[in-house]
Automatic annotation (TrEMBL):
<dbReference type="Pfam" id="PF02515">
    <property type="entry name" value="CoA_transf_3"/>
</dbReference>
<dbReference type="InterPro" id="IPR023606">
    <property type="entry name" value="CoA-Trfase_III_dom_1_sf"/>
</dbReference>
<keyword id="KW-0808">Transferase</keyword>
<protein>
    <submittedName>
        <fullName>CoA transferase</fullName>
    </submittedName>
</protein>
<dbReference type="GO" id="GO:0008410">
    <property type="term" value="F:CoA-transferase activity"/>
</dbReference>
<dbReference type="InterPro" id="IPR003673">
    <property type="entry name" value="CoA-Trfase_fam_III"/>
</dbReference>
<dbReference type="InterPro" id="IPR044855">
    <property type="entry name" value="CoA-Trfase_III_dom3_sf"/>
</dbReference>
<dbReference type="InterPro" id="IPR050483">
    <property type="entry name" value="CoA-transferase_III_domain"/>
</dbReference>
Length: 349
């Protein structure tokens, strides 16, 4: 079975993470992705081979100087046969280089143009790196220990989330059968992902506050807990989970979700004390067969070692596989492209 996106051609003028991640997911599903790079290559090639490979497998590369007449001519030729163009740059650069639907509709009125920016195509050119956006949208302020500083997660959550959203917007417009401009920003994506947190404030005036060990604001107990060895994530969201946990742990009381939430300061010490009697892995092995959501905190190396089925090989690099599984389709993982290899292929054919 060919990939579900076989026959779809996408141009990418991507930089670093968000844009390249979006198009790599589409390439994993069978789309032909042509990565348009400046002379010398996209900047993430300088970060390291494994970094570049992790975001650019299954693509082709063509070098164009988009500031030149020849580069613009070749861009128009590529756009004429493409279904979509995805670009992540500053709005002023996107417009100056003619990477909008307004500029390219003359050569392909059905082209879908996705602009992935920090604050929107009309939002200006202020720097919008992942960490900056997490700080600006309240994510950093609500993360971490209550008595500690704001905290950032250990991976690029804003870039990755925006890449996912951009890929969704691109496909939605292709399915519509119409060309047009799609506008996706890091700021808007992160604000949208604060859904119930934002709703609590907008409708009830409840501002988010931090709890120790990342505890959930509604569910109790739902957080990290220290154990006899390591930390355990326990996420009890309803009374059935609580009854099963109590039976295994040998405790009782606090029968309803409302009572556990209201008496958080009594519930948490009780749970913490009982979890200290076994290791994190021990509790995981005891609770999971009961259907209780629980997992020992693992390092990334430990997590990868525990899931060998999620590791694939693309050329000389071992990478994490795509996350979309489709019945009957096994993705082919090709290595990230050599710089301008698509031009060389076209010239030889």
């Amino acid at each position: 079975m060919s990939g579900p996106l076989a026959g779809i051609r996408i141009l990418e003028v991507g930089v670093m993470l968000a844009g390249p991640y979006a198009t790599m997911m589409l390439a994993d599903l069978g789309a032909e992705v042509i990565k348009v790079e400046p002379p010398g290559g996209e900047i993430s090639r300088q970060v390291g081979d494994s970094y570049f490979a992790s975001l650019n497998r299954n693509k082709r590369s063509v070098c164009l100087d988009l500031a030149s007449e020849e580069g613009q001519r070749r861009l128009s030729d590529l756009a004429a046969d493409a279904h979509a163009l995805l670009v992540n740059m500053k709005p002023s650069v996107i417009r100056r280089l003619g990477l909008t639907y307004e500029a390219l509709s003359r050569v392909n009125p059905r082209l879908v143009c996705v602009a992935l920016t920090g604050y929107g195509l009309d939002g200006g050119d202020d720097p919008a790196f992942d960490y900056v956006v997490q700080a600006a949208t309240g994510v950093a302020a609500m993360t971490g220990d209550p008595d500690g500083p704001p905290t950032l997660p250990g991976y690029s959550s804003a870039d990755n989330s925006t890449g996912l959203t951009a890929a969704l917007g691109l496909l939605a417009q292709i399915v519509s059968g119409r060309g047009g401009q799609v506008d996706v920003s890091l700021r808007d994506v992160m604000l949208s992902q604060l859904n119930y947190r934002a709703s609590a404030y907008l409708n009830d005036g409840v501002a988010p506050r931090r709890h120790p060990y990342g505890a959930h604001s509604y569910y109790v107990p739902a957080q990290l807990f220290p154990t006899g060895d390591g930390y355990l994530a326990l996420f009890i969201t309803h009374d059935g989970f609580w009854r099963s946990f109590c039976a295994e742990a040998g405790i009782g009381g606090f029968a309803t979700m409302a009572e556990r939430s209201a008496r958080r300061d009594e519930v948490l010490p009780l749970v913490t004390a009982v979890l200290a009697t076994d290791t994190a892995l021990g509790w995981e092995q005891r609770l999971r067969p009961l259907g209780i959501p629980a997992a020992a905190v693992r390092s990334l190396p430990e997590a990868l070692e525990a899931t060998p089925e999620a590791i694939v090989t693309a050329g000389e690099h071992r990478l994490v596989a795509g996350s979309v599984k489709i019945a009957g389709f096994t993705p082919e993982y090709r290595p990230a492209p050599a710089l301008d290899e698509y031009s060389a292929r076209c010239q030889s054919s």
